[in-house]
Fold:
Amino acid sequence: GVVEQTRRHAAIAALLRVPHVVLAVNKMDLVDYREPVFATIAEEFTAYASELGVPEITAIPISALAGDNVVDPSANMDWYGGPTFLEHLETLPVSHDLTTCHARLPVQYVIRPQTAEHPDYRGYAGQIAAGAFRVGEQVTVLPSGRTSRIAEIDLLGESVGLAWTTQSVTVLLEDDIDVSRGDLIVPTQDAPATTQDLEATVCHVADAPLTIGHRVLLKHGTRTVKAVVKDIPSRLTLDDLSLHPHPGHLVANDIGRVKIRTAEPLPVDSYADSRRTGSFILIDPADGTTLTAGMVGESFASPEPVKAEADDDGWDF
Structure:
Protein backbone atom coordinates (compact mmCIF):
# COMPACT_ATOMS: atom_id res chain seq x y z
CA GLY A 1 0.00 0.00 0.00
CA VAL A 2 0.85 3.70 0.09
CA VAL A 3 2.98 3.93 3.23
CA GLU A 4 5.03 6.81 4.69
CA GLN A 5 8.10 5.93 2.62
CA THR A 6 5.99 5.97 -0.55
CA ARG A 7 4.71 9.44 0.28
CA ARG A 8 8.21 10.69 1.11
CA HIS A 9 9.58 9.40 -2.20
CA ALA A 10 6.72 11.07 -4.06
CA ALA A 11 7.40 14.37 -2.28
CA ILE A 12 11.10 14.24 -3.12
CA ALA A 13 10.34 13.37 -6.74
CA ALA A 14 8.03 16.38 -6.94
CA LEU A 15 10.64 18.70 -5.39
CA LEU A 16 13.25 17.39 -7.83
CA ARG A 17 10.80 18.14 -10.65
CA VAL A 18 10.85 14.59 -11.97
CA PRO A 19 8.53 14.92 -14.97
CA HIS A 20 7.22 11.34 -15.08
CA VAL A 21 6.75 8.99 -12.11
CA VAL A 22 6.32 5.26 -12.69
CA LEU A 23 4.51 3.49 -9.86
CA ALA A 24 5.40 -0.22 -9.90
CA VAL A 25 2.89 -1.94 -7.61
CA ASN A 26 4.93 -4.99 -6.63
CA LYS A 27 4.07 -8.32 -4.94
CA MET A 28 0.78 -8.71 -6.79
CA ASP A 29 1.23 -12.47 -6.30
CA LEU A 30 0.57 -12.00 -2.56
CA VAL A 31 -2.96 -10.73 -3.27
CA ASP A 32 -3.78 -13.32 -5.95
CA TYR A 33 -3.26 -10.71 -8.71
CA ARG A 34 -6.58 -9.03 -7.86
CA GLU A 35 -7.34 -5.95 -9.94
CA PRO A 36 -9.28 -4.07 -7.21
CA VAL A 37 -6.23 -4.12 -4.91
CA PHE A 38 -4.04 -2.61 -7.64
CA ALA A 39 -6.70 -0.06 -8.59
CA THR A 40 -7.06 1.15 -4.98
CA ILE A 41 -3.30 1.62 -4.54
CA ALA A 42 -2.89 3.32 -7.93
CA GLU A 43 -5.79 5.69 -7.26
CA GLU A 44 -4.52 6.64 -3.79
CA PHE A 45 -0.97 7.28 -5.00
CA THR A 46 -2.08 9.20 -8.10
CA ALA A 47 -4.26 11.51 -5.99
CA TYR A 48 -1.39 12.14 -3.56
CA ALA A 49 1.28 12.73 -6.23
CA SER A 50 -1.03 14.95 -8.28
CA GLU A 51 -1.56 17.17 -5.24
CA LEU A 52 2.23 17.48 -5.00
CA GLY A 53 2.32 18.67 -8.60
CA VAL A 54 3.75 15.57 -10.31
CA PRO A 55 2.70 16.11 -13.95
CA GLU A 56 2.51 12.51 -15.17
CA ILE A 57 2.05 9.18 -13.36
CA THR A 58 1.93 5.66 -14.78
CA ALA A 59 0.95 2.71 -12.56
CA ILE A 60 1.98 -0.84 -13.52
CA PRO A 61 1.09 -4.00 -11.56
CA ILE A 62 4.06 -6.38 -11.25
CA SER A 63 5.43 -9.34 -9.37
CA ALA A 64 9.21 -9.15 -9.35
CA LEU A 65 9.39 -12.64 -7.79
CA ALA A 66 7.46 -14.28 -10.63
CA GLY A 67 8.45 -11.83 -13.37
CA ASP A 68 4.88 -10.74 -14.05
CA ASN A 69 4.81 -7.57 -16.21
CA VAL A 70 8.49 -6.92 -15.61
CA VAL A 71 9.79 -7.87 -19.07
CA ASP A 72 6.96 -9.97 -20.51
CA PRO A 73 3.18 -9.53 -20.11
CA SER A 74 1.65 -11.49 -17.26
CA ALA A 75 -0.72 -14.36 -17.87
CA ASN A 76 -1.99 -13.88 -14.31
CA MET A 77 -3.22 -10.31 -14.91
CA ASP A 78 -5.12 -10.43 -18.19
CA TRP A 79 -7.19 -7.49 -16.91
CA TYR A 80 -4.13 -5.22 -17.40
CA GLY A 81 -3.63 -4.06 -20.98
CA GLY A 82 -0.78 -1.57 -20.55
CA PRO A 83 2.95 -1.93 -21.20
CA THR A 84 5.29 -4.01 -19.09
CA PHE A 85 7.64 -2.21 -16.70
CA LEU A 86 10.72 -2.49 -18.95
CA GLU A 87 8.75 -1.70 -22.09
CA HIS A 88 7.46 1.51 -20.52
CA LEU A 89 10.89 2.61 -19.28
CA GLU A 90 12.37 2.11 -22.75
CA THR A 91 9.85 4.51 -24.28
CA LEU A 92 10.40 7.40 -21.83
CA PRO A 93 12.62 10.40 -22.71
CA VAL A 94 15.70 10.27 -20.50
CA SER A 95 16.61 13.95 -20.43
CA HIS A 96 15.77 17.41 -21.66
CA ASP A 97 17.95 19.75 -23.71
CA LEU A 98 20.25 21.43 -21.17
CA THR A 99 21.96 23.46 -23.90
CA THR A 100 19.00 25.86 -23.92
CA CYS A 101 19.35 26.59 -20.18
CA HIS A 102 21.26 29.49 -18.60
CA ALA A 103 24.96 28.89 -19.39
CA ARG A 104 26.97 28.11 -16.27
CA LEU A 105 30.60 26.93 -15.84
CA PRO A 106 31.75 26.26 -12.25
CA VAL A 107 35.54 26.57 -12.16
CA GLN A 108 37.05 23.37 -10.79
CA TYR A 109 40.72 23.98 -11.49
CA VAL A 110 43.03 26.78 -12.71
CA ILE A 111 45.62 25.50 -15.20
CA ARG A 112 48.92 27.43 -15.37
CA PRO A 113 51.66 25.13 -16.75
CA GLN A 114 54.21 27.97 -17.10
CA THR A 115 56.35 25.87 -19.41
CA ALA A 116 58.49 26.94 -22.37
CA GLU A 117 55.74 25.66 -24.68
CA HIS A 118 52.96 27.47 -22.76
CA PRO A 119 54.58 30.43 -20.96
CA ASP A 120 51.42 32.54 -20.71
CA TYR A 121 48.73 29.84 -20.59
CA ARG A 122 46.03 30.48 -17.97
CA GLY A 123 42.95 28.30 -18.36
CA TYR A 124 39.90 27.73 -16.22
CA ALA A 125 38.77 24.10 -16.26
CA GLY A 126 35.43 22.61 -15.30
CA GLN A 127 32.35 20.78 -16.49
CA ILE A 128 29.70 22.97 -18.09
CA ALA A 129 26.70 22.70 -15.77
CA ALA A 130 24.15 24.10 -18.23
CA GLY A 131 23.88 25.95 -21.51
CA ALA A 132 26.62 26.58 -24.09
CA PHE A 133 29.65 28.87 -24.39
CA ARG A 134 31.15 30.39 -27.55
CA VAL A 135 34.52 31.92 -28.37
CA GLY A 136 34.19 35.72 -28.39
CA GLU A 137 31.29 35.72 -25.93
CA GLN A 138 31.38 38.29 -23.13
CA VAL A 139 31.33 36.59 -19.74
CA THR A 140 31.28 37.57 -16.09
CA VAL A 141 33.13 35.80 -13.29
CA LEU A 142 31.09 35.50 -10.10
CA PRO A 143 31.03 36.39 -7.28
CA SER A 144 33.67 39.05 -8.11
CA GLY A 145 31.71 40.50 -11.04
CA ARG A 146 34.77 40.94 -13.27
CA THR A 147 34.11 40.71 -17.01
CA SER A 148 36.06 39.56 -20.05
CA ARG A 149 35.60 37.69 -23.34
CA ILE A 150 36.27 34.06 -24.14
CA ALA A 151 39.48 33.93 -26.16
CA GLU A 152 39.65 30.16 -26.58
CA ILE A 153 37.91 26.93 -25.52
CA ASP A 154 39.99 23.75 -25.22
CA LEU A 155 38.17 20.42 -25.40
CA LEU A 156 40.13 17.16 -25.18
CA GLY A 157 43.30 18.91 -26.31
CA GLU A 158 41.64 20.60 -29.29
CA SER A 159 40.52 24.19 -29.71
CA VAL A 160 36.78 24.50 -30.41
CA GLY A 161 34.49 27.44 -31.10
CA LEU A 162 31.50 26.10 -29.14
CA ALA A 163 31.07 23.88 -26.07
CA TRP A 164 27.92 22.77 -24.25
CA THR A 165 26.51 20.76 -21.34
CA THR A 166 27.99 18.42 -19.99
CA GLN A 167 31.38 18.74 -21.66
CA SER A 168 34.50 19.22 -19.55
CA VAL A 169 36.45 22.14 -21.01
CA THR A 170 39.17 24.68 -20.34
CA VAL A 171 38.24 28.29 -21.03
CA LEU A 172 40.81 31.00 -21.72
CA LEU A 173 39.86 34.66 -21.32
CA GLU A 174 41.13 37.72 -23.18
CA ASP A 175 41.94 39.58 -19.94
CA ASP A 176 44.19 38.52 -17.07
CA ILE A 177 41.67 38.67 -14.22
CA ASP A 178 41.58 36.90 -10.88
CA VAL A 179 39.67 33.61 -11.21
CA SER A 180 39.91 30.72 -8.76
CA ARG A 181 38.33 27.38 -7.93
CA GLY A 182 34.73 27.86 -6.84
CA ASP A 183 34.07 30.83 -9.13
CA LEU A 184 31.26 30.67 -11.68
CA ILE A 185 31.70 31.81 -15.30
CA VAL A 186 28.42 33.00 -16.88
CA PRO A 187 27.31 35.07 -19.88
CA THR A 188 27.31 38.74 -18.89
CA GLN A 189 23.79 39.21 -20.25
CA ASP A 190 22.47 36.24 -18.28
CA ALA A 191 24.20 36.45 -14.91
CA PRO A 192 22.43 35.29 -11.73
CA ALA A 193 22.26 37.49 -8.66
CA THR A 194 24.72 36.89 -5.84
CA THR A 195 23.45 36.68 -2.29
CA GLN A 196 24.39 35.64 1.23
CA ASP A 197 20.78 34.86 2.19
CA LEU A 198 19.27 31.65 0.90
CA GLU A 199 15.83 30.22 1.44
CA ALA A 200 15.32 26.70 0.22
CA THR A 201 13.46 23.46 0.65
CA VAL A 202 15.73 20.76 2.05
CA CYS A 203 15.76 17.05 2.70
CA HIS A 204 17.63 16.27 5.92
CA VAL A 205 19.54 12.99 5.64
CA ALA A 206 21.79 12.85 8.74
CA ASP A 207 20.99 11.09 12.01
CA ALA A 208 21.82 14.22 14.01
CA PRO A 209 19.09 16.90 13.79
CA LEU A 210 19.48 20.19 11.94
CA THR A 211 18.72 23.05 14.32
CA ILE A 212 18.41 26.83 14.25
CA GLY A 213 21.87 28.30 14.82
CA HIS A 214 23.58 25.21 13.39
CA ARG A 215 27.02 26.09 11.95
CA VAL A 216 27.61 24.22 8.71
CA LEU A 217 29.60 24.23 5.50
CA LEU A 218 27.54 24.87 2.37
CA LYS A 219 28.78 23.34 -0.90
CA HIS A 220 27.40 25.01 -4.01
CA GLY A 221 28.91 23.88 -7.29
CA THR A 222 32.67 23.85 -6.74
CA ARG A 223 32.62 26.42 -3.90
CA THR A 224 32.37 25.55 -0.20
CA VAL A 225 31.65 28.33 2.32
CA LYS A 226 30.77 28.66 5.99
CA ALA A 227 27.09 29.14 6.75
CA VAL A 228 24.61 29.35 9.63
CA VAL A 229 21.03 28.06 9.74
CA LYS A 230 19.06 31.21 10.67
CA ASP A 231 15.55 29.77 10.74
CA ILE A 232 13.45 26.69 9.95
CA PRO A 233 10.07 28.21 8.99
CA SER A 234 8.23 24.94 8.34
CA ARG A 235 8.32 21.16 8.05
CA LEU A 236 6.22 19.19 5.58
CA THR A 237 3.76 16.72 7.12
CA LEU A 238 3.65 13.79 4.70
CA ASP A 239 0.25 12.42 5.73
CA ASP A 240 -1.82 15.38 4.56
CA LEU A 241 0.84 17.68 2.98
CA SER A 242 0.22 20.33 5.61
CA LEU A 243 3.01 22.57 6.92
CA HIS A 244 4.07 22.35 10.55
CA PRO A 245 5.20 25.91 11.34
CA HIS A 246 8.52 26.66 13.07
CA PRO A 247 9.41 23.12 14.16
CA GLY A 248 12.77 24.30 15.53
CA HIS A 249 14.67 21.39 14.01
CA LEU A 250 14.63 18.77 11.27
CA VAL A 251 15.40 15.10 11.93
CA ALA A 252 16.47 12.37 9.52
CA ASN A 253 14.21 12.11 6.45
CA ASP A 254 12.36 15.35 7.23
CA ILE A 255 11.53 17.72 4.38
CA GLY A 256 11.37 21.34 5.41
CA ARG A 257 12.01 24.97 4.66
CA VAL A 258 15.22 26.64 5.89
CA LYS A 259 16.83 30.09 5.83
CA ILE A 260 20.60 30.16 5.63
CA ARG A 261 23.16 32.94 5.90
CA THR A 262 26.51 32.33 4.15
CA ALA A 263 29.88 33.86 4.98
CA GLU A 264 30.47 34.78 1.33
CA PRO A 265 28.10 35.78 -1.48
CA LEU A 266 27.06 32.96 -3.80
CA PRO A 267 25.74 33.17 -7.38
CA VAL A 268 22.64 31.00 -7.16
CA ASP A 269 19.84 30.21 -9.57
CA SER A 270 16.39 28.96 -8.77
CA TYR A 271 16.32 25.16 -8.83
CA ALA A 272 13.47 25.41 -11.34
CA ASP A 273 15.85 27.20 -13.74
CA SER A 274 19.03 25.21 -13.12
CA ARG A 275 19.36 22.00 -11.14
CA ARG A 276 23.16 22.24 -10.85
CA THR A 277 23.44 25.88 -9.75
CA GLY A 278 20.12 25.90 -7.89
CA SER A 279 21.08 23.11 -5.48
CA PHE A 280 23.49 22.69 -2.60
CA ILE A 281 24.41 20.41 0.28
CA LEU A 282 25.09 21.20 3.93
CA ILE A 283 28.13 19.54 5.50
CA ASP A 284 29.17 19.04 9.12
CA PRO A 285 32.41 21.05 9.48
CA ALA A 286 33.65 18.71 12.22
CA ASP A 287 33.72 15.42 10.31
CA GLY A 288 32.62 16.15 6.72
CA THR A 289 29.30 14.30 7.04
CA THR A 290 26.60 15.30 4.56
CA LEU A 291 23.70 16.71 6.56
CA THR A 292 21.14 18.08 4.13
CA ALA A 293 20.39 18.46 0.43
CA GLY A 294 18.75 21.73 -0.61
CA MET A 295 16.90 23.21 -3.57
CA VAL A 296 16.87 27.01 -3.87
CA GLY A 297 13.47 28.54 -4.48
CA GLU A 298 11.43 25.33 -4.24
CA SER A 299 9.00 26.90 -1.82
CA PHE A 300 6.16 25.88 0.47
CA ALA A 301 5.75 29.49 1.59
CA SER A 302 6.65 33.02 0.55
CA PRO A 303 10.28 33.92 1.34
CA GLU A 304 11.08 36.53 3.95
CA PRO A 305 14.31 38.52 4.31
CA VAL A 306 16.94 37.06 6.64
CA LYS A 307 18.68 39.35 9.11
CA ALA A 308 22.37 38.75 9.79
CA GLU A 309 23.46 38.38 13.38
CA ALA A 310 26.94 38.85 14.81
CA ASP A 311 28.76 36.00 16.53
CA ASP A 312 32.00 35.99 18.49
CA ASP A 313 33.42 32.61 17.44
CA GLY A 314 34.81 33.27 13.97
CA TRP A 315 31.48 32.79 12.17
CA ASP A 316 30.63 36.51 11.91
CA PHE A 317 28.61 37.16 8.77
Observations:
- The mean pLDDT is 91.
- The longest strand covers residues 223-236.
